[in-house]
Amino acid sequence: MNEITLIVADDHPLFRQGVVDALSLERDFRILSQASDGNDALDQIRSLKPNVAILDVNMPGLNGQQVTHHVSSDRIPTRVVLLTGYDDVEQAIHAMIAGAAGYCAKDIEPDVLARTIRAVSEGRYAVGGNVFNRRELDHWIDEQMEGTRRSYSEPGAPFHPLSDREMEVLSCVVRGMSNKEIAGLLGISHQTVKNHVTSILRKFGVEDRTQAVVYALKRGWVKLQFDQEKTQE
Predict the structure, then answer these.
(1) Would you tell me which CATH number, out of the four given (1.10.10.10, 2.60.40.2310, 1.10.1330.10, 3.20.20.140), belongs to the domain 164-218?
(2) Could you give the residue ranges of the DSSP H alpha helices within 74-133?
């Protein structure tokens, strides 16, 4: 039986310990460490390189999506499973864009989470109650995005309300980049990035970055881009 090494990151100690306790019962799992925020989780992933990292989507510091983006961009071999209390297909799509291997609701049964971890450790992807290879995942994402565009696009209004610079910032946000990373990439100040993000949220009438990404994806204003090379199985 091959051992699967894990780290678990969640800012709620009771929930985090519950996940650790449940996974510790599996003979092929070994918990290497725990983290209470995204920055610590990323540091541990970089130093320990576990097979799988179980991350809460919403954490202080870097959120789960941002940690996932860093892991993917840095080509760290750790596979990421994101846990969320707000499970919906749009956020699942965004998670897979960021490079996650799995996306699960927090009310998942322990045995289902264990099966998910084993699947992603073997190179597969788990989302929406399904397990896919890379090609199947790409097809699933295409189907979901086509459905949301049909449901939410605005016929006769192909324009978007953003300036060219705001569109550049939004494209970076879609990729899971932090304000600091966006500032470095575009050669503008951190405060300027914050101002652009605030303007984007105001124009879209949404409250956070994930909602802005979903809003733009549904209307086809931004395209899906995978940082990872697609592989065929």
Answers:
(1) 1.10.10.10
(2) 89-98, 110-121
Angle at 56 between CA 62 and CA 189, to 5 degrees: 15
- The pLDDT, as a whole number, for residue 176 is 83
pLDDT at 229: 40
According to the model, what pLDDT value does residue 153 have? 43
Q: What CATH number does the domain located at 4-139 have?
A: 3.40.50.2300
Alpha carbons within 13 A on the beta-carbon side of 227: 22
Residue 8 CB contacts under 8 Å (≥ 6 apart), including other chains: 16, 19, 20, 23, 31, 34, 35, 53, 54
Of the listed ranges 46-50, 63-67, 126-130, 149-153, the least confidently predicted one is 149-153
Tokens of 202: 């105001």
* Alpha-carbon span 102 to 96, nearest angstrom: 8
Does 125 or 151 have the greater pLDDT score? 125
Q: Tell me, what DSSP letter sits at residue 229? A: P
- From-to residues of CATH 3.40.50.2300 in the chain: 4-139
Domain with CATH 1.10.10.10 in the chain: 164-218
pLDDT digits (tens, 9 = 90+) for 108-120: 999 999 999 999 9
β-sheet bridge partners, residue 8: 34, 54
Does the predicted TM-score (pTM) go above 0.90?
no
